[in-house]
Amino acid sequence: xxxxxxxAAASAFQIEGATQEDGRGESIWDRFAATGHVANGDTGDPAxxxxxxxxxxxxxxxxxxxxxxxxxxxxxxxQPDGRGLANAKGLDFYRRxxxxxxxxxxxxxxxxxxxxxxxxxxxxxxxAARETAYRFAEYAELCFDVLGDVVEDWxxxxxxxVTSFLGYGTGVKAPGIRDWSAALAASHHALLSHGLxxxxxxxxxxxxxxxxxxxxxxxxxxxxxxHDLAAARRLDGHHNRWFLDxxxxxxxxxxxxxxxxxxxxxxxxxxxxxxxxxxxxxxxxLGVNFYRxxxxxxASEDGVLGLEEVAQAAEVTxxxxxxxxAALTELLLRVRxxxxxxxxxxxxxxxxxxxxxxxxxxxxxxxRVAYLHDHIAAVVRAREQGVDVRGYYVWSLLDNxxxxxxxxxxxxxxxxxxxxxxxVFKRSALWYRDWIARQTNGSVS
Length: 445
Ligand code: FCB
Hints:
Elements: E1 5-9, H1 12-15, H2 28-34, H3 50-64, E2 68-72, H4 75-78, H5 88-103, E3 107-113, H6 119-123, H7 131-147, E4 153-158, H8 160-169, H9 180-203, E5 209-215, E6 219-221, H10 226-249, H11 254-264, H12 274-281, E7 286-289, E8 294-298, E9 307-309, H13 326-339, E10 344-348, H14 366-384, E11 389-395, E12 414-417, E13 422-425, H15 427-438
Helix pairs in contact: 3-5, 7-9, 8-9, 9-12, 10-12, 13-14, 14-15
Bound molecules: beta-D-fucopyranose.
């Protein structure tokens, strides 16, 4: 991983479709969608029908000159019930996909878990249950055994903050549970499972690198008041330090332990040795997903965190997320200052806009071109100041199933006309292609 990689990212559930094919089991997102929690009644079918169109999609990547592709493996394709023997057809699919990348000169970056937990494991408590961490470790071994010779770079979890706090705390994402104690336990079990998997990867002497992807934020206070500053510090603790500290130092942040215990009672998910397992698993690289900073003020009504978000004086995307590229430079410098010289991959960055297919040969998306241009410039600035960033993966190659928003939110640099499955380049794809071509020898200019 010495050269800089320019790539794109996607995840299994968001693009594959074919949710009932070749022995795939049910995931929590199938269930969540089937029970009416997704906009417009959308489900994981057909998504981008990538399960059948993957060759065409890899060809698209090659035509854009992408050097890397971050994809995820669907656990329920590989272990339909989340345990036991592997479903060979599931692993064969990913083997063919990775070989297809290599044939086209595209470097694979594989995410083991991008939110599609087998429903059978959720029925046993999901990430709130310690057992799931051990099942994840078993699943990871199956993947390493079959793909270890063709995949060098592995990510255990995508955004464990979302898995735990949005899945089990606020319940806006699958499995839709609203229980903050369960969410806290889930966060610990996700981290523990990272530690188990990464330690086993190293202990077995497997070739390659393993890391985790966190969705980090910059938490700003709306005013200089002591209460608002404390609120911003809590958001930072909740969103960033709660994950980074145990991974890097082997300890949960004291202030957050005290805060959660005061609101939720004792935090007893941590067993002796767990924190050592998490620290020992460690990180060959840190994946950072960045979309937006947060501006907050103190609010007593919010039972657990005691804060609320305030609108920022910035333009927003179709998600309502503020566009503040400088925050990405600030974030990267902060990670280096507080956590040391970790190799970093920007594993996701991008924006949704209301793109329209109007019959032309290219979909015009100037705001996305500007978003990508300015965020890439922000990454370059961090590199110039010594942050060891080694890759950038735009979210996303294709418009896809955007979780609870269904097909309503378009993040792709390639437009997907879902009824016909036609792919049409957006201006941003052509801009990104030209940007990559201008970078000589893979280095950032
Ligand atoms: C991230 C997710 C990714 C996508 C983007 C917009 O939180 O990892 O799957 O939904 O947001």
